[in-house]
Amino acid sequence: MQYGLLKFAHLAGLLMIGAGLIGVFVADLRARQSRDLPVFAEAVRLIGVFYDGLVVPGALTLLASGVWLIVIYYDGLAFLDEPWLAGMVLLFLIEFVEGNTVTRLYFTRLQRLTRIAVAEGRFTPELVAARDRPAATFTHFLDLPLLMLIVSLGAIRPADWTVFAVGGIAALAVAAALTVTLPRLYPADAQRTG
């Protein structure tokens, strides 16, 4: 019974974080495409709604249920002997720290600059400059590929580190490609004032 409840909580956390990250990604794309300030502002607001409403609670649910499952069923540190589980934990910790530092700070700043722009009735130079910060854009685009790698490790349960290494390289490549491509498709300096 306890295992079933923990597994359910873990799956619920995964669904919340996955849905939230997809919502953040789509809202971010909408913001990048928009040349209309009110539409841009609404897309940025939705990023915050998805992030705070689904990603954060999903991550906390995954963290709590995952730690509990590891403590009970893997005798604490014995999980380090399982490459698939150790890889999942490592990636989750990296994403948890990155998401609550670089990405959260970026979107918080973007929301603040968007409120200022709406009050002024135009895209401000600060907002346009903040839109495509490379480091924050890269970490944002890394979220979904790393989540996919985490899920793949749990589903495949490889006995060595090959899937982790190949998947990690692929996730970095996808994030890099999106970081380079999307700002060129939707350049921030093309956003009109007013």
From TrEMBL:
Protein name (record): DUF2269 domain-containing protein
Species whose genome carries this gene: Azospirillum thermophilum
InterPro entries recorded: DUF2269_transmembrane
Residue stretches spanning the membrane: 6-27, 48-72, 84-107, 135-156, 162-182
Keywords, sorted A to Z: Membrane, Transmembrane, Transmembrane helix
A UniProt-annotated Pfam family: DUF2269
Keyword field contains Membrane: yes
UniProt entry tagged with the keyword Calcium: no
Domain of life: Bacteria
